[in-house]
Here is the input.
Amino acid sequence: MRTTSAAIPVASRVAGFNYAIRNIVAEARKVEAGGRRVRYLNIGDPISFGFRTPPHLVEAVERAVRDGYNGYVPSPGIPEAREAVAGELTGRGMPVSADRVLITSGTSEGIELTLTALAENGDEVLIPTPTYPLYTAVLAKVGARAVFYRTNPARGWLPDVDHLRSLITRTTRALVVIDPNNPTGANYPADVRRALIELADQHNIPLLADEVYGDLAYDGPVPPMASLYPDAPIISFSSLSKAYLAPGWRAGWMAVGRTERLDDVLVAIKKLADGRLCSPGPMQYAIAPALTGDRSHEDAFRAALGERAGITTRRLNAIDGITTVAPTAAFYAMPQVALPAGVTDEEYVLGLLRATGVLCVFGSGFGTDPREGFFRVVFLANPEELSEIFDLVAGFTGEFLARH
Ligand SMILES: Cc1ncc(COP(=O)(O)O)c(C=O)c1O
Here is the structure.
């Protein structure tokens, strides 16, 4: 047999696939290897901060595994989970039947299936900036182009609808709306949501509504976008990951709006879903108990998040050189540090990590300009730890800005 040391080539599409939230962990590991404790504020996983999955959901999965429900399940999901999702969305104003619901491996798989079904090579998809990076990563894989519409920190991170309108072309295949938003923690008012839906409807562009934080606005659950106009071409995505505290289960769902304009898209998505056989079976047995059972954990979680958001906003805005918009949902804030000319957000974030062990993600990982100095903070840590973290951020920032 002939041996060679030549490297095996990888496909060029991988070069466009970036996921800063995980990529930055390599830097954190180096800091840990040097003996410093790292506080991982890079990933939105409530479990790693001590929150616990509701016991009745754990029992549902345990029971399914023990009772032998360990085979493949139908590729669009088990009927009781699909019906529970349809019932939940219908009850909240998005009338949809179970045959238009698919159970997916998290919101992530639903998004990937949908973008794969909608966009040809070279097509355009409208994405907010800053964005959750899965969208740009999947589009790189599909070969479609992410076209960014601005959301504006001076207006509470609301989308700039005029800018968005100006970006629509004949090759626009989808409009992504993340509301409530990661990374900004914003929740859009009804008039803004209506303007986005009208744009999608008039141009016959499917609106992909990422509603994974829909239950986590501090004032209470947010209605699905499609409740404002159930006949618009809207596809809604969510999961057990955030509000039900089970991100590792990869249990999610998507619901294709009732308009017949989306019928072919639904068929295409189901066809693609057949190819991956099914999403994990036992976890699907927790979906109906989650949506139809006790939800008291959500009240406690929302209250905890509201308190942490308040601490985060107060402490960050008290640091010279940092300003932040108060989040109204989820567990993220997107502060801005006034960087001196020539310095990037990545330099600031890596400096903070190396000096203090606090790991955030630089804004350019979510598509903002590196010179603007945005970075994302996950504020799931308990109030005492958050206070220590912001002491570290304050100390480092003062020193960093004085040095540059
Ligand atoms: C906006 C947004 N969409 C989707 C996801 C992925 O969620 P899931 O675990 O349901 O795949 C996340 C995870 O952080 C997110 O923030």
